[in-house]
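It is worth pausing here to work through a concrete case rather than discussing structure prediction in the abstract. The textbook approach is simple: state the sequence, then state the predicted structure, then interpret. We follow exactly that order.
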Amino acid sequence: MKALVLTGRSPGADRSVFFRVLEQIADVGITDVGIVLGGAADAVREAVGDGTRFGVGVTYLPRSRRPGPGAAVHMARDWLGDDDFVTYPEDVLVPGGIGEQVEAFRTRRPAAQVVPGPAGVYFFTDAVHRAVDAVQAAASGGPEITDLLRWLADQGLEVVSAAPADPAPIRP
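Step two, the predicted structure:
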């Protein structure tokens, strides 16, 4: 499993929160992290380096012209390959970490899993790339994450909401 960390969503985001995001990712054994660079690319590279101090390896990915997790998934497709992954904004923490959500995702393995509460934390299988292709063709400017979730559900693929205690099926 990989992690796709989205930066540049909030100008001047608190670096201590960003660092904790990287630690939460490492805490669940995810060591392959792609950081989508926003406006403060140089500062992010300087602060994170190669990721060793956080227990992860980092690949820096340029942000697409259009911000947002849907566009980031599209832009990072080659790096993501066929791996399952989690999207995680730099400025959002999941209280208590993502351990229970990772376990629920790995056990159930839905096409998509939405983490309720903090905006922007999603788990995906490689099925999302088919959604990006389909939605990209229909969307001007790029896919929204809700469009990707809706497309997956419309294809009969499982999309769930995973609160720490109980993943439940949803339909966007």
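Step three, interpretation. The mean pLDDT is 86. The domain at 2-169 is CATH 3.90.550.10 (Spore Coat Polysaccharide Biosynthesis Protein SpsA; Chain A).
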